[in-house]
Amino acid sequence: MLRVAVVGSGPAGVYAAGLLTQGDVRVDVLDRLPCPFGLVRYGVAPDHPKIKSISATLRKVLDHPAVRFLGNVEVGTQITVEQLHRFYDAIIITSGAAVDRHLGIPGEQRAGVYSATDFVGWYCGHPDAPLDRFTLDAHSVAVVGAGNVALDVTRILAKSADELRDTDVPDQVLQVLLSSQVADIYLLARRGPVQAKFTPKELRELGALANADVLVDSTELELGESDLSRLAAAPALRRNLDALQEWAQRPVTGHPRRIHLRFRVRPVEVVGDSAVAGLRLERTEVDQQGSFSGTGSTYVLPVQMVLRSVGYRGLPLPGLPFDDDAGVIPNVAGRVLRAGRPVPGEYVAGWIKRGPTGVIGTNRHDASETVAALVADAAALPAAPIRDPDGIRDFLAERNIDVVTWEGWRSIERAEAEMGRVLGRQPVKITDRDSLLRIASGEGMPGPRI
Ligand code: NAP
After folding, report:
1. By three-state DSSP, how is residue 67 classified?
2. 1 alpha carbon – ligand 1 mean position (Å)
3. How buried is 316 (Cβ within 10 angstroms: 0-12 exposed, 13-18 middle, 19+ buried)?
C-alpha cells in the first residue's frame, strides 16, 4: 500500500487525492488553513453558488475512508518537505499561487492601493484577511486588469449588500457593503477588447446587475487587422465583443453605480499625497502581434482606491526547487525536476505546476496527469521509513500543532450553519482562525468575534 501526502486541499489537491483512492493508496491531505477547499472556499466569488457547489464533490473525496484531512498544518515551516518524506512514499504539492503580481509603478505603496487578492480574501472571509481592512468610503475605484478576477471584484463592488445577503459572506463584510460610498468603478485593460482575458459568461453578468449601469466607449472597440484575424481564429472572443458593443449602444438608466470598461490604457503612476487621489493612465496601442506599447499620451483618472488584479504568482516552498521567472515548481508532466532531472516521489499539480491559468475544472485533467506519473513510478518509489499511519499525527502533536481533522472541519460546518440560522441567512463563514480552531477542537461556538 502506498502512502501519499497531498499538500493543499484546493481543487487540484483534492482531485489528485480522489484519483489516488482508486488504487491501494492511503492519502493525507494537508492544508495550512483550518478549512479545506482552497480557492473554492476562499477565491470563488460568493455570488457564484454554482461554482462554489463544487465543494460538494471535493467533500466526498475528503470523506473517503482512505483519505485524511490534516488542516492547520503548514508544510515548509511546521514540517519540512524532508520530514514529510519520512512518513510518505510520495508527496504531491498543490500549494497554488498564493500572492498577487504588482504593477511596479510609482506610488503603488500609497494607502488606498490594494491587491485583488486582499479584497477577495476579505469578502470570502479568509482567516488571514482582517475584517476591518476595507471601508469602501471611496467614491471612485480603479480595478486594473482584464481577467475574471477583475470582473469578480468589480461585480462585488457594484452589488448592493442586499444582493449579497443570500450568500456566505461574513456579516461584517455585509455591513461595510451596506455603507459603501462607491459610485464609479473603472475596469482598466491595457490592451484591446479582443485581447481581454474575460470569459464571456462572466463578462455578460456585468450587464445584468440590478444596481449598476455599464458604460463602454464605442471608439475603444474599434478593431485593427490583427484583431479581426484573431476573432476569425477564435470565435468565442466574438461573444465578449458582442456584449461590449451592445453596452456601448445602451442608454444609461441612472442606476446608483456605474461600471466604466476602458480599453488600451495602462496605469503609470498612483497620484496623491499620503493617500490615493488619482491614477495616471497612459493610452496604449496594440500592434499586429497583439503586443501593446505606450503612446506617451497620459491623463489622471480621479479615484480614491486602486485594486490591482493583474494575476497571481506561486511562492517557493522551502526544500523544493522553484522557477522564479514562471512562479512555479519546475516539473515535467507533474514530476518535480531537481537540477533538471525528475525526482521519484515528488510531484506537483494545479497552479504551482502550470501557473495561474484555467478554470476549476482544468485542475481535474491537470491532477490526472500528475497522478498517472506517480502511479507509473510507484514500483520504483523509495519507501517511507515510518509506516505507522499515526506517525505524522504524533510528530505534529509533539510540536503542539493543533491539527484540524475531518471531524473538526465538520464541527466548523455545523457552527457556520448555526450562525447563518441565527442571522436568518444561509451558512455564514467564520473567519477568525482562533475561533475556527476552538470550534474544530470541540469547544463549541465562541464569542462575538466570529
Ligand atoms: P488573468 O486571467 O491572467 O488576467 C490578468 C489581467 O491582468 C490580464 O488582462 C493582463 O493583461 C493584466 N495585466 C497583467 N499585468 C498588468 C499590468 N502591469 N498592468 C495592467 N494590466 C496587467 O488573471 P486573473 O484574472 O487573476 O485570473 C486567474 C485565473 O483564474 C484565470 O485563469 C481566470 O480565468 C481564473 N478565474 C476564473 C473565474 C471564473 O471562472 N468565474 C473567476 C476568477 C478567476 P495582459 O493580457 O495584457 O497581460
Report:
1. strand
2. 41
3. middle
In DSSP notation, 175-194 reads HHHHT----EEEEE-SS-TT
Q: What is the pLDDT of residues 312-326, one digit of tens each?
A: 999 999 999 999 999
- Report whether residue 358 contacts ligand 1, using a CB cutoff of 6 Å: yes
Name the pTM for this structure: 0.96
Q: What is the mean pLDDT of the chain?
A: 95
Q: Among residues 392, 434, 394, which one has the least CA distance to residue 29?
A: 392
Evaluate: CB of 312 within 6 angstroms of ligand 1.
yes
8 A C-beta contact, residue 170 and residue 214: no
153 lines ligand 1 (CB under 6 A): no
Tell me the β-bridge partners of 332: 335
The pLDDT of residue 448 is 43
Which alpha helices (DSSP H) does 100-258 contain, by range? 116-123, 148-158, 161-164, 171-178, 200-206, 225-233, 236-249
Residue 80, CA distances (Å) to 7, 308, 318 in order: 11, 33, 7
User: Does any ligand 1 atom lie closer than 6 A to the CB of residue 266?
Assistant: yes
* Cβ neighbours of residue 395 closer than 8 Å, sequence gap 6 or more: 79, 83, 87
Beta bridge partners of 262: 188
Residues 48-100: tens digit of each pLDDT:
999 999 999 999 999 999 999 999 999 999 999 999 999 999 999 999 998 99
CB atoms within 10 A of CB 291: 12
List the grid coordinates of 37: 477547499
Which own/partner contact pairs does 335-341 have at CB distance under 8 Å and 24+ positions apart? 335/373, 335/377, 336/93
Ligand 1 centroid to residue 88 C-alpha, Å: 36
The reply to whether ligand 1 has any atom less than 6 angstroms from the CB of 362 is no
Ligand 1 in contact with 203 (CB < 6 A)? Answer: no
Expressed in angstroms and rounded, the spacing between residue 49 Cα and the centre of ligand 1 is 21
Q: pLDDT digits over 123-179, tens only?
A: 999 999 999 999 999 999 999 999 999 999 999 999 999 999 999 999 999 999 999
